[in-house]
Amino acid sequence: MHLLGHLVRFIVSAFMLLVVSWIVPGFTIGGFWSAFFLALVIAVVAWVIEGIFGRKITPFGRGIVGFITSALVIWGAQFIVGGMSTSIIGAILAALVIGIIDLFIPVKTPFERSSSR
Q: In the predicted model, is pLDDT for residue 115 greater than 80?
């Protein structure tokens, strides 16, 4: 079930990126697989950065790190992911919209301890 949960999360993130590309000017994604790959890249980079900062990072810091990471990864991913293009402003706006949507989709980080232990 753990692997299935991650798969569902990436699929939801990919659809969210498709919606964001429809809303945000200057940010376009060619299709579902480009959005899925972008969601995977954002998740891996955010996971690595949270791993570097460890558990000491505050929720406010995690939000800023997530926002900056998303904006930079979205902008940089246009050179890697086919069918995607964005401007710097488009990447910042997309990261902002993604952050707002993430407020309503609770996500556990790999560094949070389970309360069942």
A: no
Strand-pair partners of 85: 28
Alpha helices in 24-58 (DSSP H): 32-53
Has this prediction a pTM greater than 0.85?
no
Query: Coil, strand or helix: which one is 27?
Result: strand
Token readout for 25 is 């000017």
Distance from C-alpha of 86 to C-alpha of 68, rounded to nearest angstrom: 15
Inter-residue contact 68 to 38 (CB < 8 Å): no
The end-to-end CA distance of the chain, in Å, is 18
CA–CA dist 38, 43 (Å, integer):
9
CA atoms within 13 A on the CB side of 103: 8
pLDDT value of position 20: 84
Q: Packing angle between helix 2-23 and helix 32-53, nearest 10 degrees?
A: 110
Angle between the N-to-C axes of helices 2-23 and 88-104, in degrees from 0 to 180, rounded to the nearest 10: 130
CB 31 within 8 A of CB 11: no
